[in-house]
Amino acid sequence: MPHWMTKAFKELVDGFGFHYHTAPGEAEAELAYMNRIHAVDAVLTVDSDAFLFGAPQILRMNVKNAKEKDVVEVYTADALAAQPNPNAFLPAALLFLAVVCGGDYDTIGLKGCGPITASALASGPLAQQLFNAAHEYDENMLKIFLKEWRISLCNELEHDYSGHIGRKHPKVAANVSDAFPDPKVLKLYSHPLTSESQLGNLVHSNQWFIPEVPDNSKLAATCGRLFGWGPTIASRFVSNIWDGYFIRKFIQLSSFSPIEHTQNDVSALKSNIRFMTRAKSSRTFVNIQLTMWIDALAAEAATSVVRHAGTHPSSIEGLSTTIQMLIWVPEPILQAFSSQKVAKFYAEHPRASFDGQLELYTPVLFNDLEFAAPSV
CA-to-CA distance for 24 and 49, rounded, in angstroms? Predict the structure, then answer.
């Protein structure tokens, strides 16, 4: 994210009721550290450096089919270790691939060395030697080590002594310069700057999992200022904000919420539900459509925009007609909020017509070396 976006993005995250944590260095390195200490359950990324930095569990959205939004690819360290060639996913191999194929710190790598050749070399002793040196030597000692290591790398590329590559690559060997690999790049990978390496900058995640409701007033002021949504704040929030607002509210007032709440809080939210109209199945669960009263939310958002932008209330479009909206809520969330309402809905709409289409999701590990190795 560009630095000029950071302040505004934090405002939005805060307005939505989420928590943010500022990494002292590379984001993937910090996330991997947080994953290792169980501050987060998994790292959602398309950057393979997360495994290089030691993240034991990575999630990747199904980029092959954008319509399957409920499907994710799950990569775990244990599952990768059980693959036919587990050495390809060891830290030493991943470091070698990042250096040779190019990564975040050096996008070029070794010219002419593609992922197939690099992967073949990564399973041999050169990768482990480089990994050990990067972790054990200071920068001066590392420079001395690399002189001999480059000779070994060139010999392997030029003659394929080990037979791992399957062919000779004299042109690639000729591209190994005295500056490859950069010791500074190796140190960035082997000793990344994280909260773990900064004493006193510890990750406190115990409050991250307490559900908070988006701040409607704060978001209206922020979105009005950042995106110019002031005059159309009501319609914009119908399309982009309030469905999530209500779902978070249902979670906050559900039976499994750690937040203390009263029956009056629950009753107030129930009064916002005008109708429960229909249901549909996704691949994971049934969703129930609700018609929600939103006139109070619309008035609050408009007031916030007027107060912070200094505009006249008459400039807010569609305020008098924005009184209700349709939202889809996952049945498990609605069930935890009010099992009575769900039971009443199914009494009026037989559940059998929905359950027949339900397909429970099972995580699948894709043996996708292109993801596990740095892209080139």
Answer: 16
Looking at every residue in the chain, the average pLDDT score rounds to: 83
Half-sphere exposure of 361 (CA within 13 A, CB side): 16
CB 105 within 8 A of CB 141: no
Q: How far apart are the first and last CA of the chain?
A: 21
Q: For residue 145, give both structure tokens.
A: 């080590």
Distance between CA 272 and CA 241 in Å, rounded? 16
Q: Decide if pLDDT at 256 tops 90.
A: no
pLDDT over 90 at 261, yes or no:
no
Q: Compute how many other C-beta atoms are within 10 angstroms of the C-beta atom of residue 243.
A: 18
pLDDT of residue 352: 53
Q: How many CA atoms lie within 13 A of 366 on its CB side?
A: 16
Q: Which residues contact 330 (CB under 8 A, 6 or more apart)?
A: 247, 285, 286, 287
> 235, 239, 242: which is closest to 219 by C-alpha?
242
Predicted confidence (pLDDT) per residue in 80-96, tens digit: 777 766 666 788 998 99
| Burial class of 136 by CB neighbour count within 10 A (0 to 12, 13 to 18, 19+) | exposed
pLDDT confidence of residue 369: 31
Query: CA 34, CA 37: separation in Å to the nearest integer?
Result: 5
pLDDT at res. 359: 47
Q: Are 217 and 302 in contact (CB under 8 A)?
A: no
Model-wide pTM > 0.90: no
Which 8-state DSSP code applies to residue 83?
A: S
Q: Which residues contact 251 (CB under 8 A, 6 or more apart)?
A: 211, 257, 333, 336, 337
Tell me the three state secondary structure of residue 289: strand
